[in-house]
Amino acid sequence: MARRLLPLALLLFLPAAHASGEFYCCQDVGGSRSICGDTLPEQCRGRAYRILDSGGNVIKEISAPLTPAQKAEQAAEKERQKKLAEAAREKRLVDQALLDTYSTPEDIDISQKKAENDVDIAIRDAQENLKEAQEKRQKLNDEAEFYQKKTLPSDLDKELRAANHQVRVLEELIQVKQGERTTIRNKYEADRKRYFELTGRRSGKPAVTPPASSSTGR
Questions:
Q1: What is the biggest distance separating any 2 CA atoms in the chain, rounded to whole angstroms?
Q2: pTM, whole model, 2 decimals?
Q3: DSSP three-state, residue 5
Q4: Which of 1, 146, 164, 166 is the most buried (most CB within 10 A)?
């Protein structure tokens, strides 16, 4: 800490009885003069002040207490820094997990291909089931044509509603699975990009190109 000296005129006013003690000084409100005492002067309370030795050398500086607004700002900054540290730690863990999972860029391609194939199988199965459900519903609708001006038999009405429900469920399932495929592609593209950033390694093979998703009819 830099050592500063009180002006000579001020030292002359310091009581000789306290020549071996410490003094407390602060600037007045206007900053034009120093207020000093062997104990902290009342005018210095709640303000920045200095502690000086008997030679007028500054041995310690005390900052003014923070205002409520400054305390709130300090707390907010501390919380922000804490969140940044937590986010950085989480990112390091994710990066390490990525490197532990993939030894080479080709491992990413293989893993992506497997995940996409699993979803493609689920989509094909759902499409086949949907086709059967639509055919069954069409037969029930044809049968219901005979009862246009009559009340549908309860069994036929129940089957028709069940068929409509099954078609709806399968159509929604296919949409979900197609969305999963997009999610998988984006996930592995992000993994691949981050892997290259962390290792500087690149595959000699092109990235996996997903086949076009099959469309479904209603």
A1: 121
A2: 0.56
A3: strand
A4: 166
Beta bridge partners of 50: 25, 61
DSSP type of residue 149: T
184-193: Cβ within 8 A, 24+ apart = 184/112, 184/115, 184/116, 184/119, 185/112, 185/116, 185/210, 188/108, 188/111, 188/112, 188/115, 191/98, 191/102, 191/108, 192/105, 192/108
For residue 60, which amino acid is it?
K
Tokens 């069409």, residue located: 138
Give me the DSSP letters along 12-79.
HHS-GGGTTS-EEEEE-TTSSSEEEESS--GGGTTS-EEEE-TTSBEEEEEPPPPPHHHHHHHHHHHH
C-alpha angle 154/160/163, rounded to 5°?
140
The DSSP call for residue 200 is -
pLDDT in tens, 70-122: 889 999 999 999 999 999 999 999 999 999 999 999 999 999 999 999 999 99
Q: Please tell me the predicted confidence (pLDDT) of residue 208.
A: 44
Nearest residue to 51 (alpha-carbon basis) of 26, 83, 72: 26
pLDDT class of 218 with cuts at 50, 70, 90: very low
Write the CB contacts of 38 (distance below 8 Å, at least 6 apart in sequence): 15, 18, 21, 22, 23, 24
Place of tokens 């000086």: 52
